[in-house]
Amino acid sequence: MKIEFAPLNIPLRRRLQTAATLQWVFSFLALAQCCLAGFVLLALSDWWMLALLYAGWLWLDWDTPSSGGRRSQWVRSWRVWDYFREYFPIQLVKTVDLDPKKNYIFGFHPHGVLVAGGFGNFCTEATGFSRLFPGLRSHLLMLPFWFRVPLFRDYIMCGGLVSSCKSSLSYLVSRPEGGNVAVIAVGGASEALDARPGALKLQVLDRKGFIKLALKHGAQLVPVFSFGENELFDQMENPTGSPLRRLQNRLQSIMGVAMPLFHARGVFQYSFGLMPYRKPIHTVVGAPIPVVQTPSPTSEDIQSLHKCYLQSLTDLFEQHKQSYGLSEDQHLTFI
């Protein structure tokens, strides 16, 4: 395989964009393991008292990820996220105003491999979320497993990440003062196994838990489609029923996290590596679907709202697809 190296005379700004994205990839793939290892080493060192104090803090703070988290506007506004946005680049597209007195559930599609658009738009201020939607606070839901990792949990909560457990979502969308936005990558980890360039399959037909909670708490549903999300990485072929896919499904059932075998480019060359391609991401936030609060929704209520949500998502995609590089004959497939 011929390796295409990056030229030496790349402008400093592009190098900073690459560095910012590299630290983001590291955070997703290895920071949790490093934090856990660091905590264990601290506990075994002469500084074990610090580890003990942190363990006490962890015990007292255990429920915070499912109780709104602990956002830091300072961390969300770090300059590094501007370089991260420029790398792709990422754009947040607003279609309508949202009332800050209400709570919202944003259904984010597609999941992609590392949810780059979800992170860049809703865990940082790089694309101007607070400016576009004044009075709203965004929270991206993440698997509860990651909030059990010492130190790492505190870092990710600063960006607005919270646990994806039922109680966490209920907490956010039941606040009487309103203004909370819970962002859910509806397809979940399993959809990441199908994330590759050109993919338009969304795992959503059996995802109705967020619909039920929207009805129960009267939260407004908002479809969100991130054009370009699946273009960032290639992935080894893993068709349904293949040995690799069966292994990935088995690991997911055991560990709770997907293990896509993805690849793209490197830091100093463009031929292979775990850095995402420089492909634009346009995250379009649709119009809210009015939801009447129903404390005990029936299966018919859930099915009806779910059907309405899928139609709104389809309309959003069809309305904007040609503006962001897709052809008229490309359509979403729900599975």
From TrEMBL:
Belongs to the diacylglycerol acyltransferase family. The chain crosses the membrane at residues 21-41. CDD domains: LPLAT_MGAT-like (cd07987). Pfam families: DAGAT. GO terms for cellular component: endoplasmic reticulum membrane. The keyword Mitochondrion does not apply. Its EC number is 2.3.1.-. This is Acyltransferase. Its main location: endoplasmic reticulum. The keyword DNA damage does not apply. GO terms for molecular function: diacylglycerol O-acyltransferase activity. One of its GO terms (biological process) is triglyceride biosynthetic process. It comes from the Eukaryota. It is a multi-pass membrane protein. It is found in: Endoplasmic reticulum membrane. PANTHER family: ACYLTRANSFERASE, DIACYLGLYCEROL O-ACYLTRANSFERASE. Keywords: Acyltransferase, Endoplasmic reticulum, Lipid biosynthesis, Lipid metabolism, Membrane, Transferase, Transmembrane, Transmembrane helix.
